[in-house]
Structure of KDEL motif-containing protein 1-like:
Amino acid sequence: MFSTQANTGPSWENKTSRAFWRGRDSRRERLDLVVMSRRQPELVDAQLTNMFFFPKDEKKYGELARHVSFFEFFKYKYQLNIDGTVAAYRFPYLLSGDAVVFKQESDYYEHFYGDLEPYVHYWPIKHDLSDLLKTLRWAKQNDATMQEVARNGQRYARENLDPASILCYHVRLLQEYSSRLRSKPKFTKDFEKVEQPSEGNCKCQKYKKQVHEEL
């Protein structure tokens, strides 16, 4: 996270006004995105870096691209967050950079999603990506709006998704999980007790709220 924050690419006005994506073939929509990119390269730069799930077809999807760092991503104004086998893990890092994240509608989520507002912190796109090209054309004509969304997403990530905040969330999650166990763990004589800090050392009170009901 800190590395991404420190490497956000060129200034906004010097970034390329195209959507950028690299990744493996872990979902059909990712393949559709690559096909879309090959047809509309002036709007989308999307390539596969690995293929494990679907048959290789260079004629349809092109050759596999080399891996690039997140620092390369931020040469572009528009970032694409597309599900893989689960929620795409790169979302927090994309938010922390100086770019707008176009997030695919999804049933997957991470703990912080409930804090985010569409069109404020990120720009939503349909699950099947059917509105992506139209949205990108609109974005190019509304640059000031896109820059404001990029700034909002970046501000949220930097204030709430740093390592200390993520650790604090997991502390609260495990505390809540522990409190709901029907039977307590049984200790044996070879266990060694590790003293834990008091709850008062964790300052992120906002994670007390419940957004989902897994527990």
